[in-house]
Specification:
234 residues; alpha+beta; Type Iii Antifreeze Protein Isoform Hplc 12; 6-stranded antiparallel sheet; two-stranded antiparallel sheet; elongated
Length: 234
């Protein structure tokens, strides 16, 4: 009886070992089937503003590599830090996000020249007083709405209306060295506009008075009814 008990125990142990082996084998097969192809991309360890020169950040180790699934790669993503040498940003970059070449203002940029003009758009500059430029708060990469005030040809009374509901800011003046504010008396801001909007912007500068408003991030501009004296008296 004693020998039979030992034999039974040994049999059970072999059965458990065999079952464990099968479990491990199936697990390795499943893991192999779920393997996802990945790629190392370059990311920033801090938020970076538009117009940022990248060489000093490369030297200070701001950029690191991050592994992402190949299916999640953005078009033209930077995969080696050497691609950032001699570059500056045309648009802001957030911490940890993939950096496509289209964000750069140097030779690697996917198009648009040094200003990074989007396809189908043109760059147009406008010079205004500080209060018409949101007191210097506008930065490259922001979106603004353009308003114009004109004299009504029939009544001669002024009317204010939306000229361009949404325009991308390509460039703004660099503050003077030692200045604690970007606000200046007069400043020139460069916008990306369609050819049609460019004509409206030029007409507004030539025939009326222009104001810019700063749109919140990811919020498009809106068309609103024209404002005039009658509207204020309602």
């Amino acid at each position: 009886m004693k020998r039979a008990s030992v034999t039974a125990v040994v049999t059970i142990l072999f059965a458990l070992a065999a079952a464990g082996g099968v479990f491990l084998f199936m697990g390795s097969v499943r893991d192999g089937a779920e393997t996802v192809e990945t790629v190392s991309v370059v990311v920033s360890t801090q938020d970076l503003p538009a117009a940022q020169e990248l060489d000093p950040l490369i030297e200070s180790g701001v950029f690191q590599t991050k592994v992402v699934p190949r299916d999640d790669l953005v078009s033209g993503v930077i995969t080696d830090v050497y691609q950032l040498q001699g570059q500056r940003l045309a648009y802001p970059v957030l911490v940890g996000e993939q950096i496509p070449a289209a964000r750069l203002a140097g030779p690697l940029q996917a198009g648009g020249g040094v200003l990074g003009i989007p396809e189908g758009y043109q760059a147009a500059a406008i010079t205004l007083e500080s209060q018409r430029l949101v007191a210097g708060a506008i930065q490259p990469g922001d979106h603004i709405e353009v308003f114009g005030t004109f004299s009504n040809r029939t009544s001669g009374k002024p009317t204010t209306r939306v000229v361009i509901p949404d325009a991308l800011v390509l460039a703004v003046p660099v503050p003077d060295e030692g200045s604690t504010s970007g606000v200046t008396r007069d400043a020139t801001i460069t916008l990306a506009v369609t050819p049609e909007d460019a004509s409206l912007l030029i007409f507004s500068q030539e025939q009326g008075r222009v104001w810019l408003t700063l749109l919140p991030p990811n919020q498009p501009g809106v068309e609103v009814p024209a404002a005039n004296q009658a509207a204020l008296q309602r």
